[in-house]
Amino acid sequence: MPRFEPLSEGSLDTLERAWERIGTEIGVQFDHPLALDVFREAGQTVDGQTVRFDPGFLRAMAARAPERFTLHARNAARDLVVGGDHMVFGPAQGPPFVQAAGVRREGTMTDLEQLMQLTHLTDVLDTPGRSIVEPNDVPLDVRHLVRALAAIRLTDRVWAGEPSSSVAAEDCLAMAAIVFGGRSVIEERPVLFGNVNVNSPLRFDSRMLEGLISYAAAGQAVIVTPFLLMGAMAPVAVPAALAQQTVEALAGIALVQLIRPGAPVVLGSFLSATDMQSGSPAFGGPESAFALYASGQIARRLRLPWRSGGGTLTASQTVDYQAGYEAFNTLSAAFLAGANVCWQSAGWLEGGLVTSFEKLVADCELLDLLQAQFTPVEIDEGSLAFDAHVEVGHGGHFFGAEHTLSRFRDCFWRPTIASTENHDRWTRRGSLDHAARATRRWQALLGTYERPPLDTAVEAELIDLVERRSRELGDPLTLR
C-alpha cells in the first residue's frame, strides 16, 4: 500500500543538516575501548569517549548496509525478509510484570513460556523476540540461557539474542550455531537479531556495545534503537527529537559496518512524549504518530530497513478504551509509515511495565484487522459481481444469491474476540466485555498448543550447553 509521507524534500534536507551538525559538532559517546579504536582507525575525531564524525561519514557507512536481508528460522516457512515492503511483527519485549485474568504480578518463567506458546499459535506475530516478559524467578545472570532455550524449543521461528553483555551474546550465538550446524553457517546465513538501545541522549553504554560488537562480528542483524521520550531523553520539539534519533541510530550502524561491512542492520526508532504534569511516559498521541511517519521517510531516504517506535503502545493500566485507541493510533501509524520491523506489537500495557495476556490476544486481533486492511483489493471482472445483480434484480437481497453462497464463509474479515451479538444474546451469555472475552480467548488458545518438532540430538546438546554455562556463571540449572 502507498506510504504516508508528510515531510517535503526541503524538510528532509533541513533534518539531515541538523543530525549531521549534531554528529560533527557535539558527537556521540561510546563507553567501550574497541568502539573508540575502530572509529579512530576510520579517521574520525575521538576525544575521550566522544566521537565526532566527518561530514558525510555516517551516510557513507549506512550505504554499506543491505537494503533488505533474510533471517533464517529452523522452519524455513518462518524465514523473515527484513526491508523493502515487508513487515515483521513481534510482541511486547521486556516488561517485568504480567497481567492475567485481571491480576497484576511479577512475571515468571511459566508466564514467558505461555506467552511464547501464544506467539507460536498466531500467524500475525512473526517472532517471539527476546523476552515477552521478564522471568523474575530465574537468576539474572542465566536468564538469557533459559529464554533462548525456550524460544528454540517452544517455537520454530526466528528469535532475538540477548544484547546486554558479550557473555550473554556469545552464549546465544553458540546456541544458534548448535541449531543451524555451526558458527560458519550462521555467519553466512543470519538467524538472530539483537536490539541495541542507545543510552539517550547521545551515548552508548558498555553493555549494549558488547552485544552490538558480538552480533556484528558474527554477521547477525543488529537493530540500533534510540529510546527517546521527548522532554526527558530528547528535546520537546518533534523535529529536534527526530534529528537526535537519526544521528544516534546512524552512529551505531556505522560501528556495525566498520566491524563487519555489509552486516545486516535496522535503523530503529522509539520516539514518544512525556506527560509534562507528572513526568510519566505518554503513548498513542499525535506527536508519536507524526514521528513515525517522519521516521519512515528518513529511513527510506537512507535506504535502510526501519524499526518503528511501537506497536500497540499505551499508558493505560488495564485493557480498556484508552488501551485500545492508543494502541490503534500507534500501530496504524506504523503501517502507514511503512515499518519493516514492528516491535511491541502485542501485549504492551502500563507504559511498558506490564505484558498482558488479554491485551496480547486483543492486539493480535487488531494486527489481523490491519494486515487485512492494508492488503490491496484486486479489482477485476470477477470481483465486480455483475451476475449477482442479474440474479437479484431490483429491490431484492443478496443473502441467497449464488455469489454470496459461494463466498460467505470467508468474504469478510471476522474477529476472534469482538462481539457482533445483539443485546439479548450478549446478556444471556454473561454480558462479557472485551477484556473478559480476551481472557477466554487466550486460555482456549493455550489448550490447542503443540510443541513444534526439534531434533532430539540438537535439543540434548542445547540442554548440555545451558546446564554447563549456568554452572560456570554460578547459578546451576537442572533441565533434565
In percent, how much strand structure appears in the residues?
5-15%
Question: What's the CATH first level of the domain at 61-373?
Answer: Alpha Beta
Q: From the alpha-carbon coordinates, what is the Rg to the nearest angstrom? A: 24 Å
Number of helices: 17
Mean pLDDT: 96
What does this protein structure show overall?
There is one protein chain. This protein has helices at residues 9-26, 33-41, 57-62, 109-121, 143-154, 166-180, 183-188, 206-217, 238-259, 286-302, 321-337, 357-373, 386-392, 402-405, 423-428, 434-446, 456-472, and strands at 28-30, 45-47, 50-52, 68-71, 80-83, 88-89, 97-100, 103-106, 159-160, 192-198, 203-204, 221-226, 228-230, 265-268, 271-274, 281-282, 306-308, 341-342, 348-349, 354-356. With 480 residues, the protein is α/β, with parallel strands linked by helices. It has a domain at 61-373: Trimethylamine methyltransferase-like (TIM Barrel, Alpha-Beta Barrel). The strands form 5 sheets. A 7-stranded parallel sheet has the order 6-18-17-14-12-10-9. A 4-stranded mixed sheet has the order 2-3-1-11. A 4-stranded mixed sheet has the order 8-7-20-19. It is globular, with a radius of gyration of 24 Å.
